[in-house]
TrEMBL record:
Residues 237-279 form a coiled coil. The keyword Phosphoprotein applies. This is histidine kinase. It comes from Methylomarinovum caldicuralii. Gene3D superfamilies: 1.10.287.130, Histidine kinase-like ATPase, C-terminal domain (3.30.565.10). It comes from the Bacteria. Its EC number is 2.7.13.3.
Length: 495
């Protein structure tokens, strides 16, 4: 046998063993998911039974957790069906039990709601009429005993007291609700018993025992294929070594490509900043014209005061104040235009947001109001890149300004979130169509007319937010405005 033929045979053996092992491993993986879904179903069924008892006892005042448990059971059944294999008939029987329990649950919820409402009316009427007839207080006490235990003895007592009540107003509503509760409470008790006795969890437990045995067989078969595969793989040690060398070379190329991509992203962020600065130019120029007009006016006043032999200290102080404002505007522009730094620092998020709004405010139309509500403590600090935070604020506010047009309201809110800091930018513009929401953050998915947007603003915002470990969400309805919510994570060191 030539070396080439031997290598080909070994390669064929390795391929067959690999295929068998992968098939066995896939089966084992599906079986493991089946077992996990069974465990989850038993847990959710137990939670459902617990919440039903809490509802009956009055400890639970709504059906949210009950509905959530039913939805979880349905999800577990779908997962079981996806990985049932030869156990599909047993899974179908389990699904029938779940459907039966769901039907009983709807009947129980209807009865429970009627009982709860009727009992509330009964207690109110009993308290109101307790002084009008001596049987009313006793009727209330008997009803409470019947609610706790709708036994025949308590029922007879309640019926006897009901017979003593006059069949006239104002006792008629009290009599009606008493009869309704006499009819509904046993029905509710019966439905609760049927729900708790539905053997959904027990059937799932029996199925789990059968499945565990099948899973053990699959695991033993997968282990056998794994051992044979390892033995065959040893023959190809040299080839694997060569493959490792090739992987190392590919890894170096990948790191180089990643560095190039990061550099391209930095350039994109900087270019987007420059685009924003260009849009700020008209507003900044208008503000500078106003400042220069003020300086000119106070210079004229100073000359007149000097000509009259007066000291122009007031005019000079005004000029100094105006020049200081101009320097602040230039400083903010330079800070915004500064290239991003990859180094995270601790900073005051309120100050960063206020500075970003200072860039945008001069560019807004006069009929557009921009309000900032800061609900963070004064000493609140976060860790991140302040320049990128400003870029997020600027992009979101500019989008809001585009949405409201020449007249509207924009609100920026900054407050504490559950695990960090939350920034919200809300406008009362025309909103976003539902079909656009799914692709809103995709590159070049601009909703503006051609030539008025690059389609990269929200893409950059999402990358910055995710780069800080946060997330961004949008809530919008056509004609009702839009709200972007950005959650930045916090750590104990950020206080």
């Amino acid at each position: 046998m030539t070396p080439i033929r031997g290598a080909l045979i070994l390669a064929a053996v390795l391929a067959v063993l690999t295929g068998l092992y992968r098939y066995a491993d896939i089966e084992a993986t599906g079986a493991a998911r089946f077992a996990s879904a069974l465990t989850a179903l038993r847990l959710h069924d137990a939670e459902l039974n617990r919440d039903l008892l809490r509802l009956h006892a009055g400890d639970l005042l709504h059906y949210d957790s009950v509905n959530a448990a039913v939805e979880a059971i349905e999800k577990d059944l779908r997962s079981l069906s996806d990985h049932a294999g030869p156990l599909r008939p047993q899974v179908a029987a389990l699904a029938r039990l779940a459907r039966h329990k769901a039907i009983l649950l709807e009947r129980f919820k209807s009865a429970h709601a009627l009982v709860r409402n009727s009992l509330a009316y009964f207690l109110h009427l009993q308290e109101t009429l307790s002084a009008d007839h001596p049987a009313v207080p006793s009727l209330g006490a008997a009803m409470l005993r019947f609610v706790r235990r709708p036994a025949q003895k308590n029922r007879r007592t309640l019926e006897e007291l009901l017979a003593r009540l006059p069949a006239r107003e104002p006792f008629t509503p009290l009599r009606n609700h008493t009869r309704l509760l006499l009819r509904l409470l046993p029905k509710q008790q019966r439905l609760l018993g049927e729900l708790l006795n539905t053997p959904l969890g027990a059937t799932a437990t029996r199925l789990a025992v059968v499945h565990e045995a099948a899973l053990a067989r699959l695991q033993r078969r997968a282990d056998g294929f794994r051992l044979a595969l390892y033995m065959a793989a040893a023959v190809f040690f040299v080839q694997l070594t060569l493959a490792l060398i090739r992987l190392q070379r590919a890894n170096r190329r990948l790191r180089q490509e990643m560095r190039q991509r990061l550099e391209a992203e930095r350039q994109l962020l900087q270019a987007q900043k420059m685009e924003a600065l260009g849009s700020f130019a008209s507003g900044i120029a208008h503000d500078f014209n106003n400042l220069l007009a003020g300086v000119r006016g106070y210079l004229v006043l100073a000359r007149e005061q000097l000509a009259a032999g007066e000291r122009p200290e007031g005019a000079l102080e005004r000029i100094d104040t105006i020049v200081g404002r101009g320097q602040e505007m230039i400083q903010r522009l330079l800070q915004f235009a500064r290239p991003r730094s990859d180094r995270s620092v601790q900073f005051d998020p309120s100050q960063v947001v206020e500075e970003a709004l200072g860039f945008v405010r001069p560019t807004l139309p006069k009929a557009v109001s921009l309000r900032f509500a800061n609900r963070l403590p004064e000493d609140r600090r976060v860790r991140g890149r302040p320049g990128e935070w400003q870029q997020v604020v600027v992009n979101l506010v500019r989008n809001a300004a585009d949405a409201v047009g020449n007249q509207g309201h924009i609100e920026v809110l900054l407050d504490e979130a559950e695990n960090g800091v939350r920034l919200r930018v809300r406008d009362d513009g025309g909103g976003i169509e539902p079909e656009r929401l799914a692709t809103l953050f995709d590159p070049f998915a601009s909703g503006k007319p051609v030539g008025l947007g690059t389609g990269l603003g929200l893409t950059i915002v999402r990358r910055i937010v995710e780069g800080h470990g946060g997330r961004i969400e949008v809530d919008s309805q056509p004609g009702q405005g839009t709200c972007f919510t950005v959650n930045f994570p916090g750590t104990p060191l950020q206080r």
